[in-house]
Design goal:
Chains A, B: This is Alpha-glucosidase. The structure is a homodimer of 669-residue chains. The first copy, chain A, has 669 residues and is an alpha+beta fold. Chain A is 16% helix and 35% strand. Chain A folds into 2 domains: 259 residues, Distorted Sandwich (Beta-galactosidase, Chain A, domain 5), CATH 2.70.98; 281 residues, TIM Barrel, CATH 3.20.20.
Chain lengths: 669, 669
């Protein structure tokens, strides 16, 4: 096998025409990325090269089923259609307004030469920033219904690249820190899986996961560089239960020259379907505060009793504070019945009554008060992973919020198995989650789930699916559980988790004094780092997570007031995975640019050219920087605010403390 | 639990005297490292601080047994003895000649207040470069024989440090690349486990593992920062089968200001017993070539037939070449009967006849020829993991080598389970391996096992146990298996695997032309990087791994001729784990210094002060550097050799290509 792979890897470079008969080739519009698809010895394969060097050697395609024969051997090509597209579409909200959708591709119709003579298809789309392919399963040969037991799809990487990964088959999706290792050290991991080295940066992920199981990646035993699809199973071992003509999600390999370009990729969005929501004006990118952090740091509780956070009085005071401080929305957690531990659920029935407020929470009065103050409420549904129960309450619960003018909901799926039996990323999770997204859309309600199914770009089709957690968020720094995130974490996320979509990380910690109560918790960040996160960790909904009183009298809060949550365009200016990252974004509704830069635990100075600014224009840069002696370990709150004039020619020296950051607003003069 | 831990972590800093009653404290000789041991609520705990900051919070000590009650609760202190030592001892060979053994410690004698009223002891030794502790299990209370089912020992780290690790419970020990992640991302890992951050570098390992199971480390479920001991089990689930008064191996936490200092630690050696071999003159540090690499790159075979490597003619030609090129020894693999695949063993009997040469290999003639040429032979035993079988052949096999003047053996344990049932790092592996070490010593034979039990410093007690592989060695770059190591790998090993002891990595690849035969194999290294490895990856036996003909006419081979394998002293001059490392060593038998520096896939220039050189002395530096355009991916063989005069005041700019390195010999003028 090694020898064969090797030979083909070489041929890919020199001998493509000679094998055109059984190998079809398609290149990206810019010609740098080349995919080949072919049949050899009755099996379907693909391989890929970038800048003339192999990145994927011969990689298998196919399926094994529960009842039917495998769709793997004795295959032949019926016909191959060439496709290409070049268009531009607009996001209702996003990190960029206009997305360029340009690719070349091929659609291969295949048939079995023996057995049931089934017909199926594989479509490849090759973009400048990566490629995707998906299967269209047979409608013939007794495939009206089938159970996929194994998707044979391989990713046979050409080098032992450096990999950034999270193990699969743990608890809630992705609520772990990333590990970095050689590709050969993986066992089974989640996607996105990010790879770099040998002059290329890549990520393996999927797009448009709506009625299938999540794809994990498992190292093939005999070769540390070959990964294969590993679909999260149902509790009985089935991988996917499908019907005739099923189209799989797109299997995507994002490809770029370096990590910074990788983080700008739009291929995942492009491989999703256009919006199914005609009028999206009710979907509002916005900042919010909330009754939330006080629970995580142990001051208040979700439970009823004296420490209950969600009281009418407190909620009104949060609404007052939001109105007075230019924050358009307030989130309330723990307002409804069912939070009292230990019993969130019993006999498969959740205790959560999603349309019933606790006695201390006067929803009608609060809703009226918010409306009068011009502040919107963000609702909260915690399902405790009791999906069946939640689907039963959902319509009524959305009606309830509808009646009270609540247009957005934070949605929780805390728990290691759905309905105590199913993986939170298997087909059951994917399909039931999709029901929630579509029901919410019918009710004109936006959702941002925590503990979600991983993001695969569905926000294009369902723009009410605004953001997700699905990561170790800020809450881990607050004491839930009690291990804070590492100083590397926020410098890894833009190149890994964020490749899949927006992240509701909840930045904005200003006061670290909760450590008096939870001394072993640490936010491994300075205050300026927290400000920079509004640029670094993209989300259309951004929380100012700290307690309102902790923002009082803090001039640095001005940045949180100023920073937009919707963007005309975005540029990753600098980045080294796990070390540092700098991102500039332009306000979608004005001429101002914003820049955020962060480092990990190491202090460093970044030299950043401001070439993104309009040429010949002068700007006033309002700079929020780490103050003298700032250090996440000992002096996280030291911040200095200063202004200077800059142009597109300016190269800015951005000095970052250990765990530090810098946030800048550029206003044209 | 978090709150309690936190409170104690604080007390550790301020309130020690107030709790002297139940907490005994002991500090390192330099006072920077402080350990506390105590009993609270009847349980035994320890904690540690470095430079006044907690590094380990309250960590549990104790055991659970199969028959007897746990040794965990209802404990009280009988008496505490203070101990301290300050001595110096000499290694027969090593990276440093003299080792300073200086510590302060305490030995606590404990008893159960209830139950069987058993008595046992825990001893702590605190060095400037870390601390160790071990248990002495009861002789009373029906503990004449017992089975340990769980060692409760915890390591409750105070921060979510960055960790470098290899998963436990895979195949052969440590033959994986290291992963880097936050401590909170681990599941169960091997030791050494290296940690860094918050101004400290640490490693958890063990010393003097002779009659116990290897200690792995598992993350405690409820707290990502707390690890506990996880002993590799017997196939029936027993962890350790012990007798009254058993002393466990030392549990060691190496502690230093940074990774470079960590890599200089001698605590593992100091916690082993003095040499049991009186006259060690027959144990020779040396360089060797061998009939080995040609098999890995697919030119020759271990099997009989036309491609057999170990023939009389070829071995004599290797002996000639060694004699002519100043290499004192020649290794031969595949010389004996039993190599023919597929069947290395059958019905638990190995096919390997360790004292029977294959028909093409005339041992008496070869031995006489080697003797006449003044070249020593290095023998080879491959057990295929058939330990019982090997122990049965061992005496006869050592006699055979003895008769033919073979004083050193490379020892292989290829296979995922010993005797197809037991973990290669469980008590069975440890104890059977110890039998081999001691038998070899009786026969005055040195061994360097590959696929070994992990190194825990036993070379101090048994200096014939010279080196081990127990890592992804160079062989992985040659095609076995076909995934090469990553460019980061050699910059990680000095701070991880090498903390446990010498590594027989087999450096010295000069010709990369084998890629014509195995194109997907890569040595992720330049030629100068290969030279530097003789300094970076310490071993008293160092192979020049490439084919002799590939060294012909290569001026750079002079460095391999020159570089010693035995050192007066060693200094880690610079290092960042996974990025770069530079190490200087002084010849044990002369005034010359040598320096090796390597980088990972990134090009960089290191500024290295030569302060290690004798003050006021002038040296001629013979520099082997990456040549113009050197790059591991495209131009690995470009090397330039130049000389310059330097002194201890010189600061050298060491430019390293991608995957590059530099090797320097300093001769006094």
């Amino acid at each position: 096998m090694p020898a064969v792979l090797a030979m083909l890897a070489t041929l890919l470079l020199v001998a493509v025409p000679a094998r055109a008969a059984d190998w079809q080739s398609v290149s990206s519009p810019d010609g740098r990325l080349q995919i080949q698809f072919g049949i050899e010895e009755g099996r379907a394969w693909y391989r890929a090269a970038f800048k003339g060097r192999p990145i994927l050697d011969k990689s298998l395609l196919g399926f094994r089923f529960k009842e039917q024969a495998p769709l793997l051997d004795g295959l032949a090509i019926d016909k191959v259609a060439r496709i290409s597209a070049d268009s531009e579409w607009q996001q209702p909200w996003g990190e960029v307004r206009l997305v360029h959708d340009r690719y070349r591709g091929l659609r291969a119709e295949l048939r079995e030469t023996g057995g049931a003579q089934r017909h199926f298809a594989i479509e490849f789309r090759v973009y400048d920033d990566g490629f995707g392919f998906r299967y269209e399963l047979p409608r013939d040969g007794g495939m009206d219904r089938f159970v996929i037991m194994d998707e044979a799809t391989e990713f046979a990487f050409a080098q032992n690249y450096r990999a950034w990964w999270i193990p699969a088959y743990r608890d809630n999706y992705s609520e772990y820190e990333y590990a970095r290792s050689a590709l050969s050290a993986l066992s089974v991991v989640q996607t996105p899986l990010t790879l770099e080295g040998d002059g290329v940066a890549m990520a393996v992920h999927e797009a448009a996961l709506v009625d299938y199981a999540s794809m994990n990646l498992r190292t093939a035993k005999d070769n540390g560089k070959t990964l294969k699809a590993d679909l999260s199973p149902w509790s009985n071992g089935d991988r996917v239960r499908g019907r005739a003509g099923l189209k799989t999600p797109w299997r995507v390999v994002m490809v770029a020259d370096d990590a910074a370009r990788l983080a700008e990729s739009t291929i995942i969005l492009n491989l999703n379907e256009p919006s199914r929501i005609a009028d999206t004006r009710w979907i509002r990118p916005e900042k919010y505060i909330g009754i939330f952090w006080a629970m995580h740091i142990g001051r208040l509780s979700w439970n009823s009793g004296p420490e209950l956070g969600a009281t009418t009085e407190r909620t009104k005071s949060y609404i007052d504070w939001a109105a007075a401080n230019g924050i358009p929305a307030v989130l309330v957690e723990g307002w409804n019945v069912g939070w009292d531990v230990p019993e969130w659920w019993k006999n498969g029935r959740s205790r959560f009554r999603q349309a019933e407020a606790n006695p201390d929470f006067d929803m009608p009065a609060i809703a009226a008060y918010a409306k009068a103050k011009g502040v919107s409420l963000i609702g909260h549904h915690e399902t405790g992973g009791q999906v069946r129960d939640y689907l039963g309450q959902m319509e009524q619960a959305f009606d309830y919020y509808d009646r009270h003018g609540v247009r957005a909901i934070k949605l929780g799926y805390v728990g290691t198995r759905l309905d105590e039996t199913e993986w939170p990323d298997g087909q059951y999770a994917v399909e039931s989650f999709q029901k929630v997204v579509e029901a919410a859309a019918r009710h004109r309600i936006a959702i941002f789930p925590h503990e979600p199914v991983k993001d695969t770009g569905l926000r294009r089709t369902w723009p009410n699916l605004m953001s997700r957690e699905g990561a170790r968020g800020q809450e881990y720094n607050g004491g839930s559980p009690d291990t804070g995130n590492s100083p590397d974490h926020t410098s890894i996320l833009p190149f890994t988790r964020l490749l899949s979509g927006p992240l509701d990380y909840t930045p904005g910690v200003f006061a670290f004094d909760y450590r008096a109560r939870r001394p072993i918790n640490r936010v491994p960040s300075t205050l300026a780092h927290q400000l920079a996160l509004y640029l670094i960790l993209y989300s259309p909904v951004q929380m100012a997570v700290d307690l309102p009183e902790n923002y009082e009298g803090k001039p640095a809060f001005q940045f949180i007031r100023d920073v937009p949550t919707d963007w005309e365009t975005s540029r990753v200016i600098a980045g080294a995975i796990g070390d540092y990252v700098a991102i500039a974004r332009r306000d979608r509704h004005g001429p101002d640019w914003y820049l955020g830069a962060i480092t990990n635990g190491e202090a460093r100075t970044l030299r950043l050219p401001l070439a993104f600014l309009d040429r010949g224009r002068r700007y006033r840069a309002e700079i929020y920087a780490d103050g003298p002696g700032a250090d996440w370990r000992s002096n996280p709150e030291a911040v200095v605010i200063r202004a200077q004039e800059v142009t597109a020619e300016t190269v800015l020296d951005v000095a970052l403390a250990p765990g530090g950051g810098q946030a800048i607003r550029f206003r044209p003069l």
